[in-house]
Amino acid sequence: MRILIFLTALATALAQRTPSISWIQKEQVVDIGSSFELQCSVQYAQDYPVLWVKRGTGDTQDLPISTGPTLIVRSSRYALRHDSGSSTYILQIKDIQESDGGEYMCQVILGINNRISASTNLLVRRPPVISDNSTRNVVVSEGDPVNLECYAGGMPQPNITWRRENNAILPTGGSIARGNKLQILKIRKEDRGTYYCIADNGVGRGARRNVNVEVEFAPVVKATRPHVYQALQYDMDLECHVEAYPPAAIRWILKQESLVNNQHYRVSQFATADEYTDTTLRVLSIEKRQFGNYSCVANNKLGQSHAVVQLIESITPVCPPACDNLNFSGDASRTVTSPALAALALVAAVFHRI
Ligand SMILES: *[C@@H]1O[C@H](CO)[C@@H](O)[C@H](O)[C@H]1NC(C)=O
Ligand SMILES: *[C@@H]1O[C@H](CO)[C@@H](O)[C@H](O)[C@H]1NC(C)=O
Ligand SMILES: *[C@@H]1O[C@H](CO)[C@@H](O)[C@H](O)[C@H]1NC(C)=O
Ligand SMILES: *[C@@H]1O[C@H](CO)[C@@H](O)[C@H](O)[C@H]1NC(C)=O
């Protein structure tokens, strides 16, 4: 019995001499500019150095901050307290900066190759920053699969969401999608436009990147009016609307002949946006052979398309544009370019004299 008590006492005495770390602060998330205390409680460590060490990351080395009650690093932002009652070493950090984030280690050095340690993380809140490896702009062909990717740093780890300009519906459905990747299996030309990658972690206002998605597609050509009527000797406009990306080369064709600007035709084009062009063919002072089927042909590297405008002879002139160079408000001195109207004017003048 006596021996047992003796052994127990001896064991206790031996145990008392073995230092240990009984408690260390849990991982904490703090704001930039705030203050914070890191606490580490040790037992039976009076005879040993107790250190606070900031762990290095990658290219930086471990940095011992304090030993026992003494700061090693001189910084007005660090202060040290020792609560001898609970044998707690308290490292206070004021005006927290982003670089203060990281792993802090409480260490008791028992010998050259003998140390005990415990560590905790200090996480400093940071607003999201979208990483450079996120998709910027993409140019794809209609029908292609498209992968938009977006990554962001920040503390805590930001959530990524996708939206489209004007809250348009995403090709994947709905107006909002979550996750780093937005995968479009087969892009349509209607899916082109600006996409937003939004990173949010509750710190600050979040970050946004605009991702421009250009979809190249073969031309789509429509005749504004497929049948137009005009009388002989008058001018008439034929119009086509072309949708294409990249912009298409546009030609007007009559009887297999490409039409160019001359005394019979005037071709004009007006781009209303990157991918929309209106083209007008003005047929000047129409002759009999100019009635017929005109094609407006558009082609780009993805293909070719056309529409037909039929110019049909009418008895009476159609305004506009027939009246463009006439003035019915009574200016008799005006020259009338159309022979038909000139004849009319002549008849009128003759009647006037009678
Ligand atoms: C993008 O970069 C971030 C760091 O900026 C990294 O964490 C992430 O893994 C990278 N993603 C890819 C797919 O490369
Ligand atoms: C990310 O989204 C989830 C689910 O909506 C939410 O619970 C979490 O708090 C968000 N994280 C951040 C950092 O905002
Ligand atoms: C133009 O096209 C129409 C319909 O496609 C056809 O009926 C007509 O004969 C054509 N006219 C000429 C001059 O080829
Ligand atoms: C038509 O005549 C009126 C009055 O004489 C003049 O103000 C106007 O500019 C003319 N229009 C054209 C298209 O010549």
TrEMBL record:
Signal peptide start-end: 1-15
Domain of life from the UniProt record: Eukaryota
Record keywords: Cell membrane, Disulfide bond, Glycoprotein, Immunoglobulin domain, Membrane, Repeat, Signal
Annotated InterPro entries: Ig-like_dom, Ig-like_dom_sf, Ig-like_fold, Ig_I-set, Ig_sub, Ig_sub2, Ig_V-set, Neural/epithelial_adhesion
Residues in Ig-like domain copies: 19-117, 128-214, 219-316
Gene3D superfamilies: Immunoglobulins
Source lineage: Eukaryota, Metazoa, Ecdysozoa, Arthropoda, Crustacea
Compartments in which it is found: Cell membrane
Annotated organism of origin: Meganyctiphanes norvegica (Northern krill)
GO cellular component, one term: neuron projection
Name this protein carries in UniProt: Ig-like domain-containing protein
